Amino acid sequence: MIATRRDIGTETAIAAFLAEPVLARLLEALNEGGEETRIVGGAIRNLLLGISHSDVDLATTALPDETIRRGKAAGFKAVPTGIEHGTVTLISKGQSFEVTTLRSDVETDGRRAKVMFGRDFAADALRRDFTINALGLTRDGKIHDYADGLADLGERRVRFIGDARERIREDYLRILRFFRFHAQYGTGGPDAEGLRACIAGRAGLAGLSRERVRAETMKLLVAPGAAATLDAMMGAGLLMSVIGGVPHLSRFAAVARESGEGVHPAFRLAALAVAVREDALRLRERLRLSNEEFDRIERIALAQEGLGGQVELHSIAALRQFGQVVGSDAVAGAMVLLNASVGEEVGRGVQQRIGELGRTPPFLPTGKDVMRLGVPAGPQIGQVLEAARHAWIEAGCPGGRDEQMAFVETAMA
Fold first, then answer.
1. Which of 1, 147, 236, 387 could bridge across to 411 with cysteines, CB 3.0–4.6 Å?
2. DSSP secondary-structure letter at 171?
3. Are strands 95-101 and 56-60 parallel, antiparallel or unpaired?
4. SS3 of 97, please?
């Protein structure tokens, strides 16, 4: 089905997108000699919704070797990122494009598929997961819609293509993708048929790699509708099997209202599932967290334990002392979570404390300062600085170079 562009989105946005120099050059190279290439996936979906996109995927009738040949001839670097599934990444001027040969699934075990290459755009579109991901845009600006994706996009509805249970059996990660896409693009409750299929297929989540589960979970946590979607997952009996523990849904909802744009996914994970350090350790194993993600949620957990649930009882000096141990960012995050745990928003008092915590002055004395006071080069310099810094922390981290140097002089004595 060829859809008119006035169904959703604007002709101007589509024309501007297709006129982008690198993309236009690539489409010109791939659309010649009897081959055809279309833009597919998230780029066109987001374009029609007026949201920014980061990746541009293309589907082509050309076989991978021909895609590589044409890409190189047009000045693109070719990387065979998924050559067994027909995917080649073409790169030019800092922009990358995933180009995949049209295909159909021959065999799947719920985690990976064996594919057969073809030349049928409809068949390729209908093997995808959701209707809103099955749209195609041709070089001349025509939108091809094979699964009523435009209607679903207009209604902000995330719906499986065809039989939802069959789509899930092809790849059980689609259960998490269903909720993640609903949190990002949907309104109201999740599609009823899709929800029933996810519940029926939930045992398949156990066979997925933890890395794939982590990637989808982290994207879900920062989506606009994450709080309501997590509630739906909990009601369907799916959330605890993902995080391996009892979620703090009301706390997460409070934090999601407050944190806004640019929030770190690990902080959202801490809001949902971390109260003590053991929670952080469990999530590291269950979701194969990166070292940076684990460090962040572990420090927040330690800060929550250290504050003891009584934020208002700690002076700014005490908070600064604690911030030097686990990190000021972790203490600030813990203060937000502890407030949310008792059903409170981050009030002015807590905001002021977090602001003051963020203005903790640095410890300025260096080894050269210690040497100028007469300490010879060697390990004693480090010992003096460590003792001075410890005394400075105990005093509440006061600012001012002269006041801080007094700690150094006392440490020397």
1. 387
2. B
3. parallel
4. strand
Calpha distance 348→354 (Å, rounded):
10
HEC string of 334-399 equals HHHHHHHHCCCCCCHHHHHHHHHHHCCCCCCCCHHHHHHCCCCCCHHHHHHHHHHHHHHHHCCCCC
Q: What is the model's pLDDT at position 179?
A: 98
Q: In 3-state terms, what secondary structure has residue 90?
A: strand
pTM summary value: 0.85
Q: Which residues contact 261 (CB under 8 A, 6 or more apart)?
A: none
DSSP 111: S
Topology of domain 1-155, per CATH?
Beta Polymerase; domain 2 (3.30.460)
* pLDDT score recorded for residue 275: 92
Dihedral (CA of 8, 11, 15, 16) sign: negative
pLDDT below 70 — which residues of the chain?
1-10, 105-114, 259-261, 309-313, 342-349
Question: What is the torsional sign of CA 305, 302, 266, 287?
Answer: negative
Q: Which residue has the tokens 């065809």?
A: 162
The residue with tokens 């706390």 is 251
Q: How far is CA 120 from CA 35, 61, 135, in A?
A: 12, 8, 14
Q: In angstroms, rounded to a whole number, what is the distance separating the alpha carbons of residues 346 and 239?
A: 26
**Residue 76 pLDDT:** 97
DSSP 1: -
Q: pLDDT digits over 248-267, tens only? A: 999 999 899 876 667 899 99
Closest CA to 284 of 214, 379, 222: 214
**Taking Cα atoms as reference points, which of 359, 355, 371, 369 lies closest to residue 399?**
359
301 vs 278: CA distance, rounded Å = 9
Q: Check if the beta carbon of residue 234 is closer than 8 Å to that of residue 253.
A: no
Domain boundaries, the chain: 1-155, 299-358, 367-412
Asked if residue 153 lies in contact with residue 42, where contact means CB atoms within 8 angstroms, the answer is: no
Residue 389, C-beta contacts closer than 8 angstroms, at least 6 positions apart: 363, 407
Q: Cβ-count burial of 205 within 10 angstroms (0-12 exposed, 13-18 middle, 19+ buried)? A: middle
Q: Tell me how far CA of residue 319 lies from CA of 307, 350, 400, in angstroms.
A: 9, 12, 19
> 113-117 and 103-108: which strand pairing?
antiparallel
User: Which token pair is 280?
Assistant: 């952080």
Q: Which residues pair with 144 in a beta bridge?
A: 2, 136
CB burial class (10 A; 0-12, 13-18, 19+) of residue 107?
Answer: exposed
